[in-house]
Amino acid sequence: MEYLLTIPGRLSGLNEYIAAERSNKYKGAKMKADNEKIILYAIRQCMRGVRINRPVFMEYTWVEKNKRRDKDNITFGRKFVQDALKNAGVLKDDGWNEVVGFSDRFEVDKEDPHIDVLIKEI
Question: What is the pTM of this model?
Fold first, then answer.
């Protein structure tokens, strides 16, 4: 089975997260929680009732509004996505046995930045 999760907008990047962590010990946790709220809303829209018990491979397509952020900074969002999928009960865990790998693609659309996550059961 395959499932498509579409997350509107963009998630915080690694540089933003590091800056938050350095400025205040609670700010990084709030940033993570805020990002996960966005993802959990998308999960409710796209994957209501889905529970995956098999290992998965995840294909990320990061659609940014421009090319200002480095790709490695953008992909830090995987941490938020996989934690949210686990917390929502879609994945039973996000460890080595559950997520066998992932790939990343990058596109630009200034009118519709978003993240598509194609989750493929193995």
Answer: 0.93
Give per-residue pLDDT as tens, 46-88: 999 999 999 999 999 999 999 999 999 999 999 999 999 999 9
Unique residue bearing structure tokens 């559950």: 98
Q: How far apart are the first and last CA of the chain?
A: 8
Split into its structural domains, the chain has a count of 1
Q: What is the DSSP string of the chain?
A: -EEEEEEES----HHHHHHHHHH-TTHHHHHHHHHHHHHHHHHHHH-TT--B-S-EEEEEEEEESSS-S-HHHHTTHHHHHHHHHHHTTSBS--STTTEEEEEEEEEE-TT--EEEEEEEE-
| Domain with 77 in it | 2-121
Show the tokens assigned to 12: 């915080």
Residue 87, phi-psi category: left (phi > 0), alpha (psi -120 to 50), beta (remainder): alpha
CATH of the domain at 105: 3.30.1330.70
